[in-house]
Amino acid sequence: MAAALINIPKKAKRGDIIEIKTLMSHIMETGYRHTASGEIVPRDIITSFTCRYNGAEIFRADLFPAIAANPFISFFTTATESGKFEFEWIGDNGFSETASASITVE
Amino acid sequence: MRLLGAIVAAMLVPGAAGAAEIPQAERRSGYSFMTPDTKTMQDDDTANPGMLWGLDGEALWKRKIGSANKSCADCHSDAGTTMKGVAAHYPAFDKALGRPVDLEQRINLCRTNHQQASPLAYESRDLLALSAFVARQSQGAAIETGSDPQLEPFLAKGRELFMQRQGQLNLGCANCHDDNWDKRLAGSAITQAHPTGYPLYRLEWQSLGSLQRRLRACITGIRAQAYDYGAPELVELELYLMSRARGMPLEAPAVRP
């Protein structure tokens, strides 16, 4: 079960700078840890995060093993038009999750 | 030398040199010891990682399971109304078992008795998710645990365990959490041990965890043998701690450092 929490303003004025906050459920296993019997715990992390605003990519981040579990990513953008933010997280072992949120720009 | 002997003797007599219990008006949630950053994280539902478990719990609440093919919602319907304030009463007395059970045990009793499903393992994702979801419905409600008179003998046992020195460091819970809560230990605040936010997200754990996990970690910290998950001693300690925090608002799922 993977779950995402997205926080963006529902409404904004054209030209406003808005904050987008995302939280994704993931263990972010580094690949550097060992079990009690000495075997390596295989790496299992999110490797990439992207955000599209009405289809155009506005933010991208690469994630690495040093990032804590359940990555919280927040960034700013300018509200230009009403529409949809689409978020995508891609990671090890075929991990792929999407979420979206709508905004009304007046 | 005689002075040193007197100090050692005072330390060996349980409770002899200890301060009194914390007065009602001076009780503080672990929240008030946190940095502004961590407080912000708890306060914002979309930044609080505990809410991820809450979301999972909401899905599990509606899922039909077991040979009875029933979901939690089939009996309890909308958790927003039926579970409101419920977690603020736990651990609570169970008539059939004749002893107190905590919220996790209550969920598992429901699973085995009514859903005819297998119980969930302690600290499993699903059990934490369900307990977080149920506890969340009582966010802001005042803790009322321990008002049932049937709980008295168990409360007394929990209190005794709280005061009892044990382990290689020969410490009881009270030695830190009643006597020294305004000080720091290895850079971290020693809090008053009011379990107002469980299950909660600890940044150190990078996960949600139950009160029993926290208690076991504390017991290991004083170099004593931790009780197994679900042990009556842990439930009695949970019961005492929750009744000690009676009247304080529930914050679950909280965030702690």
Low-pLDDT residue spans of chain B: 6-17
Hey, roughly how much beta strand do the residues of chain A contain?
over 45%
Mean pLDDT of chain A: 95
Low-confidence runs of chain A: none
Q: How many H/I helical runs of chain B? A: 11
Strand order of the largest sheet of chain A: 2-8-7-4-5
Total number of β-strand segments of chain A? Answer: 8
The amount of helix of chain B comes to 40-55%
Query: Outline of chain A, from the CA principal axes?
Result: elongated
Summed over residues and divided by their number, the pLDDT of chain B gives a mean of: 92
What's the order of the H and E elements of chain B?
A: HHHHHEEHHHHEEEEHHE
Largest sheet of chain B: 3 strands, mixed
Cα separation of the termini of chain B: 42 Å
Describe the structure.
The complex is a heterodimer of chains A (106) and B (257). Chain A is mainly beta and 106 residues long. Chain A contains no helices and 8 strands. Chain A has strands at residues 4-7, 11-12, 17-24, 46-53, 56-62, 72-78, 83-91, 96-105. A 5-stranded mixed beta sheet of chain A has the order 2-8-7-4-5, with no helix packed on it. A 3-stranded antiparallel beta sheet of chain A has the order 1-3-6, with no helix packed on it. In chain A, β7 (83-91) and β8 (96-105) form a beta hairpin. The mean pLDDT of chain A is 95. Chain B is mainly alpha-helical. In chain B, 40% of the residues lie in helices and 7% in strands. Chain B is built from 11 helices and 7 strands. Chain B has helices spanning 2-12, 36-43, 50-61, 72-76, 79-82, 103-113, 125-136, 152-163, 173-177, 211-221, 232-244; strands at residues 92-94, 99-101, 184-185, 188-189, 200-202, 207-209, 255-256. In chain B, a hairpin with a 4-residue loop joins β1 and β2. Chain A binds chain B through residues 1, 3, 5-7, 21, 23, 25, 27-28, 68-70, 72, and chain B through 44-47, 49, 51-52, 55-56, 59, 125, 129, 203, 206-207.
